Records
---
Amino acid sequence: MTETAPFFSDADLAGDFYTRRFQPGPSENTLILNMGPQHPSTHGVLRIVLEVDGEYIVRAEPVLGYLHRMHERMAEEKTYLQYLPNMGRVDYLHALAWNWAFVGAVERLAGIEVPERAEYIRVITTELNRVASHLVWWGAYLLDLGAFTPILYAFEDREWILDLLQTPTGARLTYSYFRPGGVAADIDKEFLKGAKDFAVHMRDRLKMYKDLVTDNIIFRKRLEGIGPISLDMCRRYGATGPVVRGSGLAYDVRRAEPYSVYDRFEFEIPTTGSGDAMGRYRVRMEELEQSLRIIEQAVDSIPEGEIRVKGAPKVKWKAPAGEAYFAVEGGRGKIGVHLVSDGSNRPYRCKLRAPGFSNMSLFGEIARGILLADAVAILGSLDLVIPEMDR
Amino acid sequence: MGSFSIPVELIRIVVGVVAIAAFVALNAIILVYLERKVAGHIQRRPGPFEVGPHGILQTVADALKLVGKQLIKPAGADAFLFWLAPVLGFLPIFLFFLPMPFGPVLTTLEVPLGLLLILAFAGLNVLAICIAGWGSNNKWSLLGAARGVAQSVAYEIPLLLALLAVVFMKGSMNLSKIIDSQGAWPWQWNIVLQPLAFLIYFICAIAETNRAPFDLPEAESELTAGFHTEYSGMGFGLFFLAEYANMVVVCAVATTVFLGGWKGPFFSGSWWFLAKVYLLLMLMFWPRWTYPRVRFDQLLNFNWKWLMPLALANLLVTAFIMKVG
Amino acid sequence: MDLGELDARKGFFKETLAGLWSLVVGLKVTGKYFFRPQITVHYPRRTVDNIPSFRGPIELISREEDPAKPKCGACSMCVSACPSGCFTVTKKRPPAPTPEEIAEQKEKEARGEKVKKKAAPKEPERFLYDYSLCSLCGTCVEACPSGALRFSASPYRAAFDRKELVFDLLADLAERAREDRNPPGTGKTTE
């Protein structure tokens, strides 16, 4: 069936697929299906228009914009400090990475030094948040594949992280914790102990995850060889994060463009050459382990001192004119914030580079000729967070 | 004595059907509650807890809510087929239970070909799914229906072959006779002689009743809700009821054919039958809350490349031993 | 670090057996957790124990000497700092002059002297806070020069109507003072 399904050249995919101008393909037996924006597996409001022949997808086109909130435009109307809460809402799963990307851009723009303790706090909390983000992905992915229980086990562990992060940040999901020149609140001994205990606990749980899911024959058969993404495709679409690492390139912003104190910690960048959904799955599972390693090292070596530099930006702070770009490694890939300042107290332009958008753009190309069930498996393996893609 | 007398058989059937209706409804309520409790405890949460002590009345409340809900027919749906499907899915349930020996004398209708009756009407469920998917005027429903038909047709064959192995041994399709031929103690049950047939039957039964990991016709993360996407209120309720009743049926057949029916060590009787059925039902719940869903082509591959040859080989070996031994 | 192949098992039967065994292992895991104690919190009967660290709606901090009076100097920094425009703060007007004072003023004016009006007290007249707009970012708490704002720890501020979510913080403060659950200067702030 896969071979006989009519394929389309790339030129055919260029048209506006979902409006009235759509021309039916050469086969008359195809069906136009709307997957989303209310479909359970599109994680929110992603809409994918599918042309299917039976259960085989002839072509697929993602339709975005159902969760567009004009974050970039909002930046031009708010002062630098006022824009901070927006960052927690761009990607609600890895909010602290977005916090960091924006705060980092402001610091680079104004040349603000960050105290060492604040850098360590940022590393610990962001890595904890990354673990939480991956846990949600893990649970939701298994839910997509039809297993109900793993998401509740994952949330059991995630709850531990949320309780920990609640102490310094005061929030459980949409954190607004980093400030230009430091962080908002200090962490205490209890937090550090909790983070270490969590790392030990999580290692134990990872073994259980492996028994319950990774080794499961049904799960492996669903993932192995599904949705292979070549490095060339990653390059063309600008895919980053676990997607490109799953295709064999060890690209991680924490190593490629070292920021903060990441160069002081030992951690590996997991890669697999397979490029399929299983490869991406295994890369993320290994990243959990590596994040735990970073947390443990940072907790052991965190120095005492200030958490916010003297003379950090206040409400009516004016940024020097100029521009700055700052990139961090988020749970889904490279998060970049490009700030242009005209010297006023508001950014002249703020460009947010969301990894989810590039990673999702791949889908139209790899979805051709696969089964509907595989489309769900591939979408899940890309770890899409719709608010981040639409911004 | 008048010239007109009601035959005893008829009274027996009427009473039986009423009892079956009560049994099916009660079972569904208990099973839904049990399943939610099992799922809850596996996932380290309490499950239903608020309505009644330990949430025991939760399913009653849910059933009342379903009854009270508005029935909505989507625009463009074929009204006749759309409403026929849930009824067609539910009605055969009564036929399944007619020849079922619940106890030494608790059989509504003694049929020499009881097993065949059940297997024959099991096919009606497929028709209901097919009609529901077609009549809904929904593309996802249609895909679900297509899946359901292919799946049920495929899995019925090894299911039949597995049961046939036991029928070969006992030389009867009468369920009561099959129970009579088994003893009270576990080692006198057919499962000891036919372990492979039991395993094949149980896997096929899970697939036949569209339970996870074989719940492809309704795969909620792929097809939203498959063939019953568009059903509301009791339209959905009847499908739901039929699903749980079907589970009881396949487990009851397994109990009768493989596990000695109502016979058991000490105090043989209906309670043994019920206990065994519920044990099997628990075994059906367990994988649902553990495994991911299989893919459609894998499901059919597994059937045609594994279950079918195994069931056939099992049947051949059984026939050979019966003939030679 | 290349993760390599996922434990590639060679041989048809070995692979099949390993696959079947993995299914049993999965059942063992869920079976084990079935008998473990539950970890959810039965909400109305029990609550979680880390509510104090939650950053709830903003509230005013009272002065040391008078628990019913806020530290707030009505400078409106919070109003300009807030990204969502949650606050409506009006300053107290200067007290109305007494008849003698008016007479005195008129006298002064007649003499051609400079009239000095009474300064308005640095206190808010009205302090409204629209919780439905607030994103609990804490910019106001950091911006406040007199340290008069803090996060409350209360997670129970749900309402049926959006209008009910406009809190009068001065009335809140007075009520807390009346009920004597307003020890001055306590509670969580981000600083």
Note: Helices of chain C lie at 12-34, 77-81, 99-111, 139-143, 169-178.
---
Amino acid sequence: MADLVLKNIQKSYGNHPVIHGLDLHIKSGEFVTLLGPSGCGKTTLLRMIAGLEKIDSGELWIGGKPMQGLPAQKRPIGMVFQSYALFPHMNVKNNITFGLKIQKMEEHAIFSKLDWVIPLLGLEGLENRLPKEISGGQRQRVALARALVLDPEVLLLDEPLSNLDAALRELAMDELKRIHQEVGKTIIYVSHNQAEAMTMSQRIAVLNKGHLEQYAEPMRLYDEPASRFTAEFIGSPIANSYVGKLGTHDGLPVVQTAVGIIRISDRCMGHVSSAPKEIRVCIRPQDIHQLKNQVLTPYCSVFRVLPSLIETPGDRCLVIGKTNSGEAVRFFVDRVHTVVVGEPLDVFVSAEHVHLFNSENGKNILGEQI
Amino acid sequence: MGYIDKGEVAKKIVWTSCVIVMMVGIIAPIYLLLKYAISDPSTVNTGGRPIPIWPNRPTFDMFLYLFKDREFWAVVANSAIIAVSTVALTSFLSVPAGYVLARYNFPLKRFFLILLISVRLFPDISSVIPIATFFVRMNLHSSYLSVVLAHTLLALPYVIFMATTAFEFVPKDIEEQARVIGANRVTIFTKILVPMVFPSLVAGAIYTFLLSWDEFIFAHFLLDTGGQIQTLTLYLNKNLSFSPPQNILAAISVCLSVPVMIFTFIVQRYMVSGVVSGAVK
């Protein structure tokens, strides 16, 4: 078993703290993404796991062994850099086998490793090419092959897809998922791209300014964001966000916003009295629907919107409208001809998709229940 | 498309002319040297008229005369020993120095860099006296070592700068990647870094060889004209004082230049550009 455990990890550059007491438990064979905006500390965290950066305080365990004080070359890890960092003077084969030769592995064992990894990554026929003679996607795969042949317990990937164009990136994502399934390694993937993270990972650790915002499965992050940061960072376009007041309406829990009175989940009932009066309400554009002939449950809230802008990014249209009170509402509709700019329409949202956050610390008011 | 950009054409013409002028500037002296070296002694004195573009009776007599001279071979050997030793010593010192200067920050680094280059801020003639005096005191006078050390001193600042720049071009990712793979510092240095900066080291070696091979002032002061060890430049100087026919001097000059050309020709193929390309991104 190669569980990776981080306990109260802290790191500062000079007087500037970049990681504040972070705890993370990654299970053996899991594909975990460290997700966050630039400067959130995700790459620093990865480099600390690799041993390229010193851990100021805290503990790092891989497979039950402490890693503090162990240099990078002694740790059971493989790493693929954002830049791939191929050795430019070595051909593909020598790049891949460099680490094996350092280990003084026997020639025939090296060959069998090559026979395994070259078809796995589709590098047939490129063995004798130099890095400058192959494409970006191929370089990325060579870097991955070079890490895989060493049979590391944990594979660290630092934004390996960010240098690829969009079409190639989708292919590479499928490829990475397939490789993860085939080799079953623990993979820690660093990304600022939430789409990549949502597609590939089993769990995502959302980082912001050196703090762990949430660590959960992709769908859970999406449906039950633990903080306002997660709600706004995960999902695209950015979630609708309003200031609201908790209360009851006909004995049911609601939140009063400039958009109108919005019915909220029964789970919030207990918080109506205890939670601070002013809270932050986030609703994803994907969770607001046009009211046509649907039969609404009592959990749905309806409000009227005046569309002011319609964008067509693909199969759906993003409508940006305004309520009577002037608040902007973004939502998706299926067909453009049902919505006309300037013609008011009704939209509805279901209570389980209304996310409520403490205005001061940004935490979900449901707190531990999530 | 049949479309011709007039600006482009003008640019090409200007560049081509520049290249031709430069080539003439480089080739003309070599040609003149060669022409004199293969002229028959009797045809060199033409009473002020230039000798024809191709000598009347081309001959290799001058070279044969030189090659039969045992002293000539001795000085060629001396120059070669000194130049090769200087290249070896300079490379040995400049590679680690360049790496440290490129990768580490230490107190007074900028001061140290200026100090390094300041060796070459003085004209050679002003630094040769104290150096010669010092070597005499160290009992190094009239030895190979003195000239090798002096030439190394002359070459080192530039070669260290070349090596530093080259190491700075090696992305840090590459070193860190090698560490993650399991390489120790020595392996990273010998198997990754040195091969990557090799073209620059070769350029440095060529520079050092050229500098040492045709260096005169330090060789003159440290070896004496009449001393045991003579270099080619000193030999040429000695022969000049006997005012021999120009074609003998020209032949010696050719002998001075040819090894330089051969050395450059051999090592310049390692100077392929773009060795670093493809490493990152």
Note: The interface with chain A takes residues 171, 173-174, 176-184, 187, 191-192, 195-196, 198, 274-281 of chain B (CB under 8 Å).
